[in-house]
Amino acid sequence: MFYHSQDRQSCQPCTPACPPPCCPPACEPILTIGTTITGEPGTAAEVTNTGTRCNPVLNFTIPRGVTGATGATGPSGGPTGATGATGATGPTGPTGATGATGTDGAAGATGATGPTGPTGATGATGTDGAAGATGATGPTGPTGATGTDGAAGATGATGPTGPTGATGATGATGPTGPTGATGATGTDGAAGATGATGTADTITVRNTTTGEPGTEASVTDVSGGPNHILDFVIPRGFDGTDGATGATGATGADGAAGITGVTGPTGATGVTGPTGATGPTGATGATGATGATGATGATGTCSCTCRSKGEMVVNGGMESFTENIPTGWTANNPALVSKVGQQGRVHSGNWAVNLKDHAVLYQDIAVEAGCFYQFSFFARGEGSQVGFTAKVIYLNAQNQQTDALTIQVRQQDLVTSNRIFTYFRGITSAAPTGTVTARIQFTVNADGSQSMDLDDVSLSVD
């Protein structure tokens, strides 16, 4: 049999001298989980009882895991990107007019360097360091203090204890008498029977979970007494710091050399130098004797058929139009041909002709067999993706064709700068026997709405 004091701070075994009112049924502790605190890494775990022996309240302090080791060094970065290609070669500038020899024109500027290739991708981040080890279990908390002894019972009279008389009415409290002399110690009474064993609470640890770094540790009593089932959450240590940056990857191989940049336009003809001073006039020699008059020669004859006829193209300057078509010319589709007069889009005069994608513009001119012809014109692209084919084609009386000259410019190679035209010139092959007509013809190929401006077309006997 047990009893407990009035403040329930301790449980003590009953003795025969224990007054019956002090002996309730056996003391059965009631266990309560209090606070759960996350301690610093490396400190000891701790469990303290802030309750009583009969009503314990357990407070847990569980240290956070130490910071993980530094991660391994990340792999090297990717190779340096290849060098970008040099810009496309521009078309040749027009040949300057022939005149007196002057100083050489300045060399055209070198084409712009192509853009630098993209930078290689950044190397992958090093893997996270391993999770820190779980801190060691702290020592068991100290045993609670022993409760105070109950008050000593009065010493009984020597001899067997008589039966207890009926309790009389409580009399008025008299004055306290003097303390009597200590009586002789009585013999120990017989030991009381052993009380029934009380049922103790049980504790079972069910789950231990690793929490995220920086979160609080916790202990949860999922069932309550008397059979407590506890779940622990212990945070793992913070990840280690990132590993050092990997060494720079090897430099990638140089990209292929780009093609030569755009050729600058031909420099202007130098200024004619001043005429040298006239030398002194030499002395006049003596007049020689007059020779006899020679016989008159026979009158000569000219058999040359390829005499110059001047300009042979009708309206080569594109200054006259019938609706959209230059007068004297024929187009495959009038909707693809138009006149333009904006500043920077005319080579000379007031107008030029504009040819869109798939436009064909031509003119037939009477020529003589056996002759060579000089063909020239000025052109510019209205957009960067414009190309063309210019031809001189000989035709006989049966309209059978013979190619005499072809000038072809690919897309991207035709100059597109405002106010700048490219001059094209070529000499045909000799017109074969039976030729009666030469056809000069332009065919344009361009992306989308891009087009070509054409002006000052010429054909003459070479």
Describe the model.
Helices cover 0% and strands 28% of the residues. The strands form 6 sheets. It has a 5-stranded antiparallel β-sheet, with no helix packed on it. The chain has a 5-stranded antiparallel β-sheet with strand order 12-13-20-15-18, with no helix packed on it. It has 462 residues and is an all-beta fold. It is rod-shaped and about 200 Å long. A hairpin with a 5-residue loop joins strand 7 and strand 8. The chain starts with a strand and ends with a strand.
What topology does this entry show?
Layout: E1 2-4, E2 11-13, E3 32-39, E4 46-49, E5 57-63, E6 202-211, E7 218-221, E8 227-235, E9 321-322, E10 325-326, E11 330-331, E12 337-340, E13 352-356, E14 360-366, E15 373-382, E16 386-396, E17 401-409, E18 422-427, E19 435-446, E20 451-461
Parallel strand pairs: 3-5, 6-8
Antiparallel strand pairs: 1-2, 4-5, 7-8, 9-10, 11-14, 12-13, 13-20, 14-19, 15-18, 15-20, 16-17, 16-19
What would a concise description of this structure say?
With 462 residues, this protein is mostly beta strands.
What would you call the structural class? mainly beta
- What is the helix/strand order? EEEEEEEEEEEEEEEEEEEE
Helix content: under 10%
- Name the poorly predicted regions: 1-9, 21-26
Basic shape? rod-shaped
CA gyration radius, whole angstroms:
60 Å
> What is the strand tally?
20
